Amino acid sequence: MAKDDKLRVVMVNVRQGDCIAIQLPSGEVMLVDCNKPTGSDIPPVINYLNEFAERRGGIYDIDLLCLTHPDRDHYTGLVDVIDWVQRKGGSVKRLIHFASKFRRGYEAALRKFTMLPDDQKAGFVFECGEFKKLMECMAAVKENIQEHEKTAPKEWSFERADGFKPTARFTDVSVDILGPKSSDVQKFEEDSWNNLLEGWPFGKSNESKSTNVLSCILCVRFKSLRVLLTGDSPEETLLSAVSSCVSRFRQYKGVTFDIIKIPHHGAASSSSINLWKALSGRSGYMLISAGLDRRYGHPHTETLRHIGASCPNHELVCTNYCPDA
Ligand SMILES: [Zn+2]
Ligand SMILES: [Zn+2]
Hints:
Radius of gyration: 19 Å
Structural class: alpha/beta
CATH class: Alpha Beta
CATH superfamily: Ribonuclease Z/Hydroxyacylglutathione hydrolase-like
Order of helices and strands: EEEHEHEHHEEEHHEEHEHEHE
Strand content: 15-25%
CATH architecture: 4-Layer Sandwich
Largest sheet: 7 strands, mixed
Shape: globular
Bound molecules: zinc ion
Strand order of the largest sheet: 7-8-9-10-11-12-13
Number of domains: 1
CATH topology: Metallo-beta-lactamase, Chain A
Distance between the termini: 25 Å
């Protein structure tokens, strides 16, 4: 396996959505979310995954895959990526996803479908079909992991993001789940599926606070470097999860983060001066993944103002302005 001393963090430009690919110094690969832009046949992350695999001598494994939450701008490319990994002879070895069951959402969808007026059924069928494909694909990945986990539990694992948990140890790199807190999961889980299904009859994903609250919050630690990955976590969910880790766990005491993926594509509801002051140190990188046409107004000008006011020495990297970051 090719080794160097670099942690490569790529925020792939997937327009409105998220996709973060990371290669660890040991060569192992992490993928957090995977949007496929409308009209694309292949998720753009495949180019990076190919490059990563070649660098590590033709190993096509994804050593850790995380689906942060069930909004479609975070998952439409995942089925293609998993299929690609399998065709190349690789495996997904660790899976982290939001703390709620796909099947529960799918069953709620089927119940809703029977009650819809006929003119809303077509849009619903499309969204439901995409979700079903994802559900089946994730279930197969999970099953494969659980089969191997029995004999090699250090290399294979399946976790739900439900409160703090150290989750994976690689050579020189650790990955911890920082949130959401279990209390937030319990409070919002039921609502999240209801909100998600509200948009489906109209053929669109209904981004809501409840689904975003479920977002897995991860920290990648390499030497003194801390990378914070946040999905679409709202401001108060993120702040309370990280503050609770900082106050309870020795390894997070006094910690700030050097690379922060700004949650929810730079939406104002996921930002405040207080938040960035609490999370960031004196310098580093703030990453925003947002669509070129700013259809949703991402990143919000308030968010940019908050970052400017609280982190003047940070470099802001945004997919609206840079091709890939
Ligand atoms: Zn999103
Ligand atoms: Zn979302």
